[in-house]
Specification:
Glutaredoxin; alpha+beta; seven-stranded mixed beta sheet; 5 helices
């Protein structure tokens, strides 16, 4: 997994509108990059709606939020429209970006093993370096933890 202090690996992915987003294009801004398993599932919906509901707090911290899942653009658009998600969700269907960040992991549920994104958030400073890594965050606690990390690092001034 990518660790604190390293330059965040660059990527270009399509968002829910099919528009390209390149991480290096956001240099100069603090980026909250969160990886989640699957759009429109209970935990991921709680997490995404939390970001939506705390948008003013993220804006006050000067942070841009990006969510990444292995879902295709069409599924992300449906998810964003259904819950009025007003931030960018990025499609990583070949999970190449998740692999580069070290969050594409083998999981197990009900005796079945499969591969998917580990719920992990990277806070990336204005210089493109990973300032914080939050692993295995519970969806309902995500925003409080990320906003505390942003406040701690003085995100607007990082």
């Amino acid at each position: 997994m990518i660790e604190q202090g390293v330059v965040a690996p660059d990527f270009t992915l399509a968002d829910q509108a099919g528009e390209s987003v390149t991480l290096s294009g956001l240099r100069g801004k603090t980026v909250v990059l969160y990886f989640y398993p699957k759009a429109d599932t209970p935990g991921c919906t709680t997490q995404a709606c939390g970001v939506r509901d705390r948008r003013a707090d993220y804006a006050a911290a000067g942070a841009v939020v990006l969510g990444i899942s292995p879902d295709p653009v069409k599924a992300l658009k449906k998810f964003a429209d259904r819950y009025q998600l007003d931030f960018r969700l990025l499609a990583d269907p070949d999970h190449a970006t998740a692999e580069r960040y070290g969050v594409w992991v083998e999981k197990s549920m009900y005796g079945r093993t499969y591969w998917g994104n580990a719920r992990t958030t990277f806070v990336i400073d204005r210089d493109g370096k990973v300032a914080r890594v939050l692993e295995n965050v519970k969806p309902a606690a995500h925003d409080d933890l990320v906003l505390a990390a942003l406040a701690e690092m003085g995100a607007g001034n990082a």
